[in-house]
């Protein structure tokens, strides 16, 4: 009988644990939201201590006037849970207090702060603004903010710290879950910047916090709030783990902090595609929705306000065209007048707002307003899914962001669209696969990953292998029809000649090989083969001798164009200017929607061709006599029958 009771209790307990909430509400709505991360204009992170409700309402009015519908907001952890540890004789621990007084509740939460937060929710709701709430805000703008009693503990792994975090989350979510202005719960701002003890500690912390959120409110999605996730198996913020535990992932695509991004002017194609590339990578590999939760220029010393606005336009058009649910800027207001840390620590955190502290909008705020207005002119709230022509395989032996970004840029310039897939999982069906070089020379792809790609070729697909920086794969004579003669470390610059155009590519290894039954697609200035094509089963394997994607050597896009031809990719709309990106969105009624984006910082006039009848252009672009006129860093939508 005792075992029956235990079984019944186990079943009841299991039933009480909710499954992860579906990505509903904010992420399943038809529209595309725009907004920013919000701290009050007068006080920044100290808004809850220096509480001025009339200023908060002014701020909300300014943001609503520029079309913003979503804000990410932050209950600063030590303000909302002001725990202090008390000690007696011999400094023995006596207990916890709250600002020197007994705890107001079992969670140690300040109820006055909760009233202030509810005021913010009420005021936002009146303006049709919805909120993503970053719960454990213990990291902000380069400074840790932790309750005094927990300051010396590792926030992501110390049991005592996690105990109080869980209590805080339970109290906060249960107190606020009735408010309709709250759209999603965010774990907290970039919590991976807090201290932990490795991959397992972060997984455990995420599981504990997200589980408490779901128990307390199973109706809203749980958002990661983290940045700098990795493809590497065993990495601290591994994308597999993020997808396992979260309903939505987040990117914080700042070029200044991201490898290989701050290598060109801010308002050019590398940075113009940064947000959409990284967000698509996170979404594809995690199997969850993802959105750019923070994006920005990092201030006028990096790029002028006008050029920052141009980059924002490219981000907005790109993320919307890719089907992502929204886009938020960092942040609402400049904080250059504040005489408190972290604003006194570093100049990089002071001039990041869409508005100046007096509420006057910057060009970025106006660009966001104009984009929100543009979307209202369209007859559809959401485009059909974009056409995808190729799958790029992400190695898990190392972090491969630079290769994933390189593949996005090269494919964009070559005129086709990609998605991403894990190397160590079954590959999605496609006609074209790309396996880029990796930073791991000798373990670029496991045998299983390599043979899964080759199985696709045997069944009729085209597979492109790019080997550079010393990367090695086996069986290349059988697979690619090449025989390696020499392979040694040496810095080289290859001058590559192709039918699509000539270019140069740098590499850190010299590799010489002979062709064994393959076709030469490109060669160097000495006539040595650089790119080849080889029949393999019902399909073919393409080989490129060089790290095309590493560091995104953009001159190499003719190689991607050649590969697309070999794979039989034919687009309905083409434009020869490589800085004009085109995404195709086939509709069920036979209508084709096309988003054209000028990733250049000067206006473009270019021939454009399309199969079908051009019905209408939405936006400021013009097409006359087969020539597209599109402004700098601008986009438009074409409707074709």
What do you see in this structure?
The protein is an alpha/beta fold and 641 residues long. It has three domains: 33-376, TIM Barrel (Alpha-Beta Barrel); 390-566, Rossmann fold (3-Layer(aba) Sandwich), CATH 3.40.50; 575-640, Immunoglobulin-like (Sandwich). It contains 15 helices and 30 strands. A nine-stranded mixed β-sheet has the order 14-13-15-16-21-20-19-17-18, sandwiched between helices. A six-stranded parallel β-sheet has the order 9-8-5-2-1-12. Strand 19 (519-524) and strand 20 (529-536) form a beta hairpin. Helix 2 (53-65) runs parallel beside helix 4 and helix 7 crosses helix 9 (274-286). It is globular. 52% of the residues are buried. The model is unreliable at 1-24 (pLDDT under 50).
């Amino acid at each position: 009988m005792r075992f029956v009771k235990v079984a019944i209790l186990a079943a009841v307990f299991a039933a009480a644990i909710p499954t992860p909430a579906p990505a509903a509400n904010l992420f399943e709505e038809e529209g595309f939201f725009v907004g920013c991360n919000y701290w009050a204009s007068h006080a920044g992170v100290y808004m809850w201590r220096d509480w001025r409700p009339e200023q908060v309402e002014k701020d909300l009015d300014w943001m609503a006037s520029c079309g913003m519908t979503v804000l990410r907001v932050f209950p600063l952890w030590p303000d909302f849970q002001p725990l202090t540890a008390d000690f007696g004789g011999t400094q023995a621990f006596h207990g916890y207090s709250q600002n020197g007084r007994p705890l107001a509740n079992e969670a140690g939460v300040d109820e006055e702060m909760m009233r202030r937060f509810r005021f913010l929710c009420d005021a936002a709701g009146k303006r049709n603004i919805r909120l993503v709430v970053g719960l454990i805000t213990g990291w902000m703008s380069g400074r840790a903010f932790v309750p005094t009693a927990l300051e010396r503990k590792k926030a992501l792994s110390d049991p005592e710290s996690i105990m109080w975090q869980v209590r805080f989350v339970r109290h906060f979510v249960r107190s606020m879950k009735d408010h309709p202005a709250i759209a999603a719960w965010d774990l907290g701002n970039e919590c991976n910047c807090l201290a932990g003890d490795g991959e397992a500690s972060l997984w455990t912390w995420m599981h504990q916090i997200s589980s408490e959120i779901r128990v307390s409110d199973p109706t809203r999605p749980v958002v990661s709030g983290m940045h700098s996730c990795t493809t590497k198996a065993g990495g601290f913020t591994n994308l597999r783990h993020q997808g396992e535990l979260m309903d939505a992932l987040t990117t914080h695509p700042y070029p200044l902090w991201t490898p290989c991004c701050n290598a060109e002017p801010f308002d050019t194609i590398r940075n113009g595609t940064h947000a959409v590339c990284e967000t698509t990578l996170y979404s594809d590999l995690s199997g969850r929705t993802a959105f750019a939760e923070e994006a920005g220029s990092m201030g006028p010393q990096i790029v002028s306000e006008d050029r920052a606005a141009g980059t924002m336009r490219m981000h907005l058009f790109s993320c919307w065209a890719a089907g992502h649910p929204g886009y938020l800027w960092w942040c609402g207001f400049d904080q250059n007048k504040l005489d408190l840390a972290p604003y006194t620590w570093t100049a990089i955190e002071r001039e990041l707002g869409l508005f100046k502290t007096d509420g006057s909008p910057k060009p970025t705020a106006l660009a966001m307003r104009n984009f929100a207005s543009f979307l209202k002119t369209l007859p559809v709230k959401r485009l059909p899914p974009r056409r995808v022509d190729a799958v790029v395989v992400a190695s898990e032996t190392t972090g491969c962001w630079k290769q994933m970004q390189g593949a996005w840029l090269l494919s964009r310039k070559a005129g086709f669209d990609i998605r991403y897939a894990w190397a160590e999982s079954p590959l999605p069906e496609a006609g074209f696969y790309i396996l880029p070089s990796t930073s791991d020379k000798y373990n670029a792809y496991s045998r299983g990953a390599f043979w899964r790609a080759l199985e696709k070729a045997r069944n009729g697909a085209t597979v492109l292998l790019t080997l550079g920086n010393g990367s090695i794969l086996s069986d290349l004579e059988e697979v690619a029809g090449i025989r390696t003669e020499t392979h040694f470390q040496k810095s080289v610059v290859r001058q590559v000649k192709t039918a699509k155009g000539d270019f140069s590519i740098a590499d850190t290894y010299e590799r010489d090989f002979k062709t064994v039954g393959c076709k030469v697609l490109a060669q160097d200035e000495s006539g040595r083969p650089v790119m080849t094509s080889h029949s393999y089963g019902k399909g073919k394997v393409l080989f490129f001798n060089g790290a095309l994607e590493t560091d995104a050597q953009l001159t190499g896009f003719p190689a991607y164009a050649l590969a697309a031809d070999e794979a039989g990719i034919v687009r309905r709309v083409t434009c020869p200017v490589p800085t004009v990106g085109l995404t195709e969105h086939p509709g069920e009624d036979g209508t084709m929607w096309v988003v054209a984006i000028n990733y250049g910082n000067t206006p473009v006039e270019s021939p454009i061709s399309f199969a079908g009848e051009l019905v209408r252009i939405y936006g400021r672009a013009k097409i006359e006599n087969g020539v597209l006129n599109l402004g700098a860093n601008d986009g438009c939508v074409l409707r074709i029958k």
